[in-house]
Every structure is written in structure tokens, then in C-alpha cells.
Write a structure and sequence with these properties.
mainly beta, 2 helices, 8% helix
Length: 337
């Protein structure tokens, strides 16, 4: 009888281990067309990312560690100590580029020696999976694939892809473009090597198409238009339709960066290069502009309720409440973990 009980317990333990191994490593897949973050946010560093009422962000007060909060800035929590950029998220996971080698208080140990790479974190239990250990730049989740910049052995940037399940890794192109703006299976980008025109590329076949011979920077593909900075036209902020027709100039100032709300109602941009540098809000329906603050700023991020941006040296972050039109310094708490 004793041997039977031991056998049954052993069998149960083995079955439990098999079950746990199978389901603890289960990958949850997305619907096609799922986007991990907005193009505007990714161009600006991917330091804020909103998903289903939660904002994940890189806390500048805690050496860039991954934090979360509600959309109204409440319930701030520390998620991971990793210094993170290019944050993407879906219903089950957060994806990010680890930049621990840039930490001000970097600590290297035998238990934590991998200070760079792309990681997938389960939002429920915070379990980490490394998708690639290579040095990387901007990354973008589209559907079930991460598209990202990677340094090759010669130190040149190339664009690669890998599934969220670590499968189907491949080179997409050796053109050192920025994989930030994806819409309907196409990556929209400004050429780098041969020209600076507006192009599109099919994400899996690599088939390219020239959309416009307008020189551009930071093309953001939205439902109605493609927005971009016209680099040979005074760095004005412009847009064009998907046929590549004539451009429409929206801002006749030297713009260094910008972002746009998902409904294409408001543009936020930094005016640079003169004595009147400032962050501005443009209402694309009324044409009315509002200066949020004078000075030099960068890395504008859009969430459903707030606009975040950094001062030029990256030490102070501002939060603009779109509903109340109040601007304040964003000072999230810091937690030990």
C-alpha cells in the first residue's frame, strides 16, 4: 500500500511538473494589426506606453526603471529595475529595450550580467523572457512580431525582426531606417542611405515603394494622413495623403520633434533654432495654437489624458493635462525593489 501511495504521489508530481512546464511557457498571441505603441511615442524614445488603462513608463527619477501607473497618474508602482526605452505593450506582455549599461549607478554581478537586449515581460507575473541579447535601438511591436534596429558586427545599424515567441528571427533590411511607424502591414520610413524620401516597406516580404520624393523626417502614418518634418523646407511640419500628393504645411517654424493624438485632432511640437523656442499645441480642426511652455524641450509623448515631454538635458519631465489644460512637473515617486 505504501509503495502504491508513493507511486501515485510521484506520478502526480511528474504530471504537475509537465503541466507547469507546458503552461508557464505558453505564449499569448495577438490579433493581426495589434500595435505596441504609437509611432510618435517611439520616435521620441518610447518612454511612455499606454495599454488598457495602464501607462508603463521609464521613471527618470529612478534611473529609467520600468514603472506603471493609471492614466490619471495615480497608483504608481515599480515594475522592474531595468533601465528601459522603446516600451511596447499588448494585452499580456510588455516589451522593451534594456539599457542597463547606461545606468548612472550600474552594478554588474554574476546574477545580472546581461545589461542589454530586448525583453518580454508577462504583465501578470512579471516573468521575463529575453528575445535577443544583441545591442539594439528603436523597436516596434506589430501583430506578433518585433521589428527593431540592431548593430551588426561592423557597428552598422540593420533592421531585423523576431516573433514574440522568439521564432522566425530574420534580417529585414540593411538600410539603417527607423522602424517606428507601421500601418496596415506597411512600415513607413524616411530613406537614409540612398535618399531621404518617403517610402513604405511590406513588413514580411521587404517589398518597397516610393511614396513621395519629398525629403522628410519622422513620418507618422495616421488613418487620414502621413505627418512628417520637411527637412529641406525649413523643418516645417507637414502632412500628405497616401497617394503621395502635394504636401500641406501645418507649421511654418523649425520643428525638431513632434507627436500627434490618435484622433489626429492635436499636434504637439517643439519649435527650435531661434529666440522663440517653445512647445506648442496645434488644434488641427480650428487651426488655433497654444504655447505650453517656452524653452528647449524634447521627447514628446502622448497618452489618453496627458502629454509628457522632457527638458533638453532630460532631468525634468512635464505633464500637460489635456482636459484641464494645466501644465505641471511630473515627479513620480521612487520605490526600492
Amino acid at each position: 500500500m505504501k509503495k502504491i501511495i508513493i507511486f501515485l504521489l510521484l506520478a502526480a508530481a511528474i504530471a504537475g511538473a509537465i503541466f507547469w512546464s507546458k503552461y508557464s511557457n505558453k505564449v499569448y498571441y495577438n490579433a493581426e494589426g495589434t500595435s505596441g505603441n504609437s509611432a510618435g511615442n517611439l520616435y521620441n524614445g518610447g518612454l511612455f506606453c499606454e495599454i488598457n488603462g495602464t501607462v508603463y513608463f521609464s521613471n527618470h527619477k529612478d534611473d529609467g526603471a520600468l514603472y506603471s501607473m493609471d492614466t490619471d497618474l495615480s497608483n504608481v508602482e515599480k515594475v522592474l529595475p531595468d533601465k528601459v526605452v522603446s516600451i511596447n505593450a499588448d494585452s499580456h506582455y510588455v516589451y522593451y529595450s534594456r539599457r542597463n549599461y547606461e545606468k548612472e549607478n550600474r552594478v554588474v554581478s554574476a546574477l545580472n550580467f546581461q545589461d542589454h537586449g530586448i525583453f518580454r515581460m508577462n504583465r501578470k507575473d512579471k516573468k521575463l523572457t529575453m528575445l535577443t541579447e544583441e545591442l539594439n535601438g528603436v523597436l516596434c511591436l506589430s501583430g506578433n512580431t518585433i521589428f527593431f534596429q540592431q548593430l551588426d558586427r561592423s557597428g552598422n545599424i540593420e533592421i531585423r525582426r523576431i516573433g514574440i515567441d522568439k521564432k522566425n528571427a530574420a534580417l529585414l533590411t540593411k538600410e539603417p531606417l527607423i522602424p517606428a511607424s507601421v500601418r496596415n502591414g506597411l512600415l513607413y520610413y524616411a530613406g537614409v542611405s540612398s535618399d531621404h524620401f518617403l517610402h513604405s516597406m511590406a513588413l514580411f516580404s521587404g517589398a518597397e515603394e516610393l511614396i513621395s520624393d519629398q525629403f522628410c523626417y519622422m513620418p507618422v502614418a495616421m488613418p487620414e494622413y502621413i505627418y512628417y518634418i520637411a527637412t529641406t523646407d525649413g523643418h516645417n511640419l507637414c502632412r500628405m495623403d497616401y497617394s503621395g500628393g502635394s504636401k500641406e504645411t501645418l507649421v511654418e517654424d523649425f520643428c525638431s520633434t513632434f507627436n500627434i493624438t490618435p484622433d489626429e485632432r492635436y499636434l504637439y511640437y517643439q519649435v527650435d533654432g531661434g529666440d522663440d523656442n517653445r512647445i506648442v499645441q496645434l488644434d488641427l480642426v480650428t487651426g488655433f495654437t497654444t504655447t505650453l511652455i517656452d524653452g528647449n524641450y524634447k521627447q514628446i509623448h502622448v497618452t489618453s489624458k496627458y502629454i509628457f515631454f522632457y527638458d533638453f538635458i532630460g532631468k525634468t519631465v512635464y505633464a500637460y493635462d489635456r482636459a484641464t489644460e494645466l501644465l505641471s512637473v511630473f515627479n513620480p515617486p521612487v520605490f526600492e525593489k
